[in-house]
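Our platform keeps sequence and structure together, in a single record for each protein. Such a record has a labelled line for the sequence and another for the backbone structure tokens. Nothing more is needed to write down the fold, since each code stands for a local backbone conformation. For reference, a complete record is included directly beneath this paragraph:
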Amino acid sequence: MQDFTGRLTEIKDSTPIIYDETEKAGRIRIEKLLDDYAAFFEFYFPMYATAKCAWFHVWVANMLLKNKSIRFILEWFRGCAKSVHADVGYPLFLKAHKQLKCMVLVGQTAEKACILMSDLQAQLQSNQRYIHDYGEQYSHGNWKNGHFKTKDGCSFHALGFGQSPRGLRNAGNRPDYIVIDDIDTQEMSNNQSRVRKGVDWVSDDLMGCFDIGTQRFINANNQPFANSILGGLVNEKLKGGITTSVQQLNENVSAEGAFHYQHRRHWHHLRVNAIDGEHNPSWPEKYTKEYWYDVRDDRTLRSWMREYMNTPITEGSIFKNEWIKWKPILPLNEYDYLIVYADPSWKNNVHSDYKAVKFWGKRGKELHLIKSFVQQTSIAGMVKYMYDLYESTDYKRKDRTYRFALNGSAVVDFWIEANQNQDLHLEDFLEEGELRGYQLPIRPDKRNKPDKFSRIESLSPLYERGFVYYNEAEKDEPDMMRAVEQLLAFEQGSKSPDDSPDADEGAIYYMQRITRANSYKPRLGTRESGGDW
């Protein structure tokens, strides 16, 4: 109670009323704020608005306002103001537009839901600006923690995940705005059956509370777990949906690679990662590149990927996180053997399997992963990368920059996995080569390969014994992160992508085979024991 009272005082002190405006000026100001969610949020909630709203905060608000029946899955990174907007900003924006009658907020437990709802309740009770413009909100006798009603008749209900929502209504009004906030847990993620039941509870019990007409729904969370209700809803509701560039949502989007948007009918899924592949922040009004570099340095790879990049890394039973070792790589001409190996996957589009290109070097017993390309892109995109790599002038080490000289002093073998689409791949290489005036000297890997699982699993002793190192200068690069993620997630029966470790296997196979052949020196002489051969 003391914390809540202190919050009321803080809100009251931070929202002083503008006393020197005329009634007409006040009406004009209110109308302008109602037309501009960013201005609305920053004026009424200065305690939250420590930075300008991002374009996606505003876009969701406008979509909610324009569409009475809409569902959002907001997969936003930690620190993206999910709760502030979904639990407070959006519902009070709708209420100001007289488009909110009955709100339900779902948390992991009833207690956590009440805590989340208390932020909104405190705003309605003590926000002097909101009260001044939209009237007294506090209703004596109807202000119970977690279940309360404002003076103008709007009701608000906090609900724990899995609790029965039946009977929730405000007089004749059933819920018209439902928000789920951060309900996924590690315990639930470990039990696929519970996740499946959770998705069913959301789809059937919770959304069954809606009445005909106004049905606004939001599930707001990042993606810290491989199995989650958020992921289950995406798979179920967005299956067959349309993936659209976020530039069509806002033409001034920066860091486009940090976003993923798809929609199907009235379902919308917007993923927002902290940064794109060039470390540009998705919310530049609040965060800088330098800030995210510092956060990345303070986090383990697993924590960084799941909390800020919406990419959970689940360690499998084969490769362990502690086996991933980082060190500075050598100048290229000091390696015994260098190889670039490509696994193109079999589908030629940007939403299929990953294309993987791995640049490895061998020095003595040590195997160094120098550079990694792991992306969902077209064959042409992968081919372009390989030509760019061949033409590169430098590569990074932590202490300095060295010349690549792949087509100069350092001899590098280029290999590609050969499969049923080999001719298609060769056409892409030929076309790119014609544009550049030369053909990349690439060899097809035509091995009669054993089972993929056995091949990749055979690499584990090399990692466990400490022979494998990754380039520490590439530690923060998204492609290198994806390489680690796919390796750690690899195990029998897993549905996680395995294109990256498959490319590693090809590269390491030829590194070991060729260097072993080169180092073999036959010994000639007579047999000690006579006799025939």
